[in-house]
Specification:
Blueprint: H1 6-25, E1 32-33, E2 39-43, E3 48-59, E4 62-72, E5 77-88, E6 92-102, E7 107-117, E8 121-131, E9 136-139, E10 143-147, E11 153-156, E12 158-162, E13 167-177, E14 182-191, E15 196-206, E16 210-220, E17 225-236, E18 239-249, E19 254-265, E20 270-280, E21 285-297, E22 302-314, E23 320-333, E24 336-346, E25 351-355, E26 359-362, E27 365-368, E28 371-377, E29 380-395, E30 402-415, E31 418-440, E32 443-464, E33 467-474, E34 478-483, H2 508-512, H3 515-533
GO molecular function: glycolipid transfer activity
Protein name: Organic solvent tolerance-like N-terminal domain-containing protein
GO biological process, one term: lipopolysaccharide transport
Length: about 525
């Protein structure tokens, strides 16, 4: 990640070479005019020495070459013109069309085709001011810094240099181009003492493989950590991350995202969103909390998992292997929904375990048990295993009756999200209502004949459209049919019966928002709709 911040190294080295050396030049009280000029004369009115041809001034270890100059000893200033060349120890060279030095006011200004060069970098601009007293160098009409040995460059409309504080600021249309990254920003600031950089305004950091964006941010070169803020995003070919704030630590291989977090991994077809997320590459895990939502994208439908906290684990190649969800877990996918207190999803083996009062809805059927295990095949639900107190129930239309299948252990087999078969092992019980359909004048009338109650050790049931179509009872079945008018209330429902349709998630949005938030969203929507209409 450091490579893209060579921009700050450019600013540091060039700024130090140019302006710190200029500051030393002012420590001597006057410029010395060396012998060899073609012509020199004194203007008595102004006190200026007018020097022409092969003009050379010296101040300590710095020499100034020019075609002509106005030199005033009383006012301690020089105005030099034509082929200006300022040289310091043969390591720093400055060129321009004209220059002004005022040692009393400690001020210098270069005009026209300004070029400043050391052994590593070169600055070109239209004009450059240097205020030694206030320790600031400024260009205000576009500047370009380029590397002599590489393709690195930095350009901006305005540049401020504070050599004593080692602070460098670039403003308006700041563009850095390096061998690996390009950075575009409105304002970029760097302090060499703290080795910390700041971006302000829309900032784009791009290379062949990645695009990053923020509207405010900072980066610490010493610690190799940084933050992207305000609509921050990282966009790679197969991974997209959005958040209000993104923190990155290279030594720890750690990412922290805050507020409006959105993560999409198109390679593994998963996504996450929430209020706060941490990704730890060293430990191979990530977690997200606050309106936390995981998405498993599939060809036909998407599985959504919501909980207070979600953990996602990956192998050394970054491929997801396991997901864990804790507290108030909810599932939503097409015609299948579910709730439980905690969940473990073993992606590698296609197994999902729901713990603590789990409930699963598949079309019009409700499945409950102490623990529910869901097994996938070809990324689709193949089987649900209900451990202890298993129950499959469906509501009988327009009544307070329920078809029920219960037992110690149960296997429910699915075709997509429809139950096709249920095998009950141990203490098996079935309660279902016998119906007969008559068609009169194109109207179908359902006549309920009674309730069939059968107990057996083991039972296998076949389903069509959620209703029992076939039944096989094993080991001394005990059955009775009650007419509708004579149903025994004690046998109307099995011991573990529960019906909690009001808890069934209606959509993934319904899962992540509280009742108060839903009410606020609806009020906001109504207000916006009203303002648009009127």
């Amino acid at each position: 990640m450091k490579t893209k911040f060579n921009i700050f190294k450019i600013a540091l080295l060039l700024g130090s070479a140019i302006f710190l050396s200029s500051g030393n030049a002012f420590s001597q009280d006057y410029f010395e005019l060396l012998e060899g000029s073609d012509d020199i004369r004194l203007d008595g009115k102004t006190g200026n020495y007018i020097v022409k041809g092969n003009v050379i001034f010296k101040k300590e270890n710095t020499k100034l070459y020019c075609d002509s100059a106005y030199y005033n000893l009383v006012q301690s200033n020089i105005r030099a013109y034509g082929n200006i060349h300022l040289n310091k120890e043969d390591t720093l060279n400055m060129f321009c069309d004209s220059i002004f030095f005022d040692t009393k006011k400690e001020y210098a200004k270069m005009y026209g085709n300004v070029r400043i060069r050391d052994n590593e970098y070169k600055l070109t601009t239209d004009s450059l001011d240097y205020d030694v007293k206030n320790d600031v160098g400024i260009y205000k009409n576009k500047g370009l810094i380029t590397s002599i040995s590489s393709s690195d460059s930095l350009s901006s409309v305005i540049g401020y240099f504070y050599p004593n504080n080692k602070q460098f600021n670039f403003r308006k249309n700041v563009v850095y181009k390096g061998e690996e990254f390009t950075v575009k920003s409105d304002t970029l600031q760097f302090n060499a003492n703290s080795e910390k950089a700041f971006f302000y305004g829309p900032t784009y950091i791009t290379n062949e493989d990645m695009k990053m964006y923020c509207e405010k941010g900072w980066y610490n070169l010493k610690e190799d950590i940084g933050v992207l803020e305000h609509n921050a995003s990282i966009d790679r070919e197969n991974l997209k991350i959005n958040a209000d704030s993104l923190f990155y630590s290279a030594p720890d291989s750690l990412y922290i995202a805050k507020r409006k977090v959105r993560i999409v991994d198109t390679t593994n077809k998963i996504g996450f969103q929430g209020d706060y997320a941490i990704n730890d590459d060293k430990k191979g895990y990530a977690f997200i909390t606050g309106h936390a939502l995981a998405k498993q994208f599939e060809d036909e439908d998407t599985l959504y998992i919501h909980a207070d906290t979600l953990y996602n684990y990956a192998d050394s190649s970054g491929k997801p292997t396991m997901m864990q969800a804790y507290n108030k877990v909810e599932l939503f996918r097409g015609d299948m929904q579910g709730i439980c207190d905690s969940l473990v999803y073993d992606k590698a083996n296609g197994e999902m375990n729901m713990f603590h009062d789990p409930t699963l809805w598949a079309q019009n059927a409700q499945l409950t048990s102490d623990t529910i295990s869901i097994y996938e095949k070809d990324n689709k639900i193949h089987r649900a295993f209900l451990r202890k107190n298993g129950l499959v129930a469906t509501a009988v239309d327009s009544t307070n009756y329920y078809n029920q299948v219960a037992g110690t252990l149960m296997n429910a087999y699915f075709d997509s999200t429809q139950i096709k078969r249920v095998d009950i092992i141990g203490n098996a019980k079935t309660l279902y209502f016998l119906e007969e359909e008559d068609e009169k004048d194109t109207v179908i009338i359902v006549n309920r004949q009674g309730m069939n109650r059968i107990y057996a050790s083991n039972i296998s049931l076949g389903f069509v459209d959620g209703d029992i179509e076939t039944a096989t009872y094993r080991d001394k079945p005990d059955g009775i049919v009650y007419p509708m008018s004579d149903i025994d209330k004690k046998e109307e429902r099995v011991d573990q019966f529960i019906w909690s349709i009001e808890k069934r998630p209606l959509s993934w949005q319904d899962m992540i928002y509280s009742e108060e938030e839903k009410e606020l969203i609806l009020k906001t929507f109504e207000r916006l709709k009203h303002s648009v209409l009127f």
